[in-house]
Specification:
about 300 residues; mainly alpha; about 70% helix; membrane; transmembrane; transmembrane helix; ABC-2 type transport system permease protein
Amino acid sequence: MTQPDLAPTDVIHDIGYRSYDGPRLGRRYARKSLYVQSLRGAYGLGRSAKSKVLPMILFAVMCLPALIIVALTIFTDRKDLPLQYTRYAVVLQAVITLFVASQAPQAVSRDLRFKTTPLYFSRPIEAVDYVVAKFAALASALFLLTAAPLLILYIGALLAKLSFGHQTAGFAKGLVSIALLSLLFAGIGLVIAAVTPRRGFGVAAVITLFVISYGAVSAVQGVADNQEKWHVIGWLGLFSPITLIDGFQTWFLDATSAFPDAAGPPNAAAGTAYLLVILAILAGSFGLLMRRYRKAGLS
């Protein structure tokens, strides 16, 4: 008589789980990693080939006029560059706006849409680390976008044997201007993009704000110019991001204004107002981003 098969019994195996006892890199390393990843993402690095197309095209479009200007300066024996370093970003503001509109939502909207933000905040990153990393990454990406053509202009000017001191001073002023522009545009773009998880809405909203504000200011400045109210033109520049930069660099960096009749800030009070408004927008942008993530219950 055969014995019935015995039912198998459960067995607990000791597979050696142990707690991690290696080095812990902490918040600073995590914040740095998020910054590097976000900066690379702004140019599509580490992402699909399709993600690289637009930022690389915009980068090329930013640099192409600088190459043309350098070629004209060298081959026509000009005594100075036909375009000031501080004016370059103002002239190509449309390209900068498109870059902000496309990359600000990419930086924050996707995290909100796919609900990956809580993973960042699980440990050790906190809300302030996330905001600082994203803000710094987009500002750095914008600085690279706007500094590259200025560097091309500077190298070309030296190759054309233009005045070293004059060109160096102009290049330095241009870097100061685009550094402030990068911070301002990054702050505004991120605040708008963080409102909605829909990337398309974010892109449209950023473009709308920059285009409408600049168009409205330019139109009213044109009316003031026709009425010969040049002191009003300088004050109107406070109501658009790019004209804020124009007014700031006109007063503090001795740049030529792009306003009608080159009418920059009319007096010291107006010049100081440009600086204060820029600083207020930067502080307000950071504060709104912090509130956005705290309000969402993610910190």
